[in-house]
Amino acid sequence: MMDRSRFERAESLPDFVARAVENHDLWASTLRRASLTPEHAARAAALAGTWHIVVLLEDWCGDAVNSVPFLHALADAAPGVTLRVLERDRNLDLMDAHLTNGARAIPLAIVYDDAFVERGQWGSRPAVLQQWVREHGLAMEKDARYKQVRTWYARDKGVTTVEEVLTLLERVATHAPEHASAQVAGSNA
Question: Which of 18, 112, 113, 158 could form a Cys-Cys staple with 52, CB 3.0–4.6 A?
């Protein structure tokens, strides 16, 4: 599935954004403004180990536009973390091995150790937002729901996404290599 060669062939987020078409301006704007809180930056800098994060995404995905640039900022702040992106629809083998309730939900961030053993995953949106969508948003018309989701992301400024993924990285960094894949509770629902 994932190995060093496939990871190295994957794009950096800035390269993906440079060739994005459908939401280029939104991707570029979010990437420019994505930053970490001082606490998150300090925790990222202190993260032990070497970690590779592969994010499955697509240009059209609003959740990806609003979260992946913040994961890029997290990886930039963590000396042992490298992030690459792959388009979901061109990597269905990887996507289909990580379905969410039978769906190809993105973005999906998969964490690998230095030997490319999968250690955890996050996606497709922050747990609190996903809970709101399930409990309230699905009852709304699509346009109204997406307006609320976009408002939530704008107010959150990536803080919840970074917290969930950083917590996942900290947890897997403290587990022995023989431990199974870890997941942030509720994040991939």
Answer: 112
Task: Report the sign of the C-alpha dihedral through residues 182, 63, 80, 43, in that order.
Answer: negative
How many Å apart are CA 103 and CA 82, to the nearest integer? 27
Q: For residue 59, give the nearest of 36, 89, 37, 34 by alpha carbon.
A: 89
**Residue 33 φ/ψ, nearest 5 degrees:** -95, -10
pTM of the model: 0.91
Look up tokens 């922050």; give the residue: 126
Residues 104 and 89: their CA atoms lie apart, in Å, by 9
CB atoms under 10 Å from CB of 52, counted, come to: 24
DSSP state of 179: S
Distance CA 156, CA 125 (A): 12
Task: Give the chain's count of helices (H) and strands (E).
Answer: 9, 5
* Residue 83 φ/ψ, nearest 5 degrees: -115, 135
Q: CB atoms < 10 A from the CB of 179, how many?
A: 11
Contacts of 20 (CB under 8 A, 6+ apart): 27, 28, 59
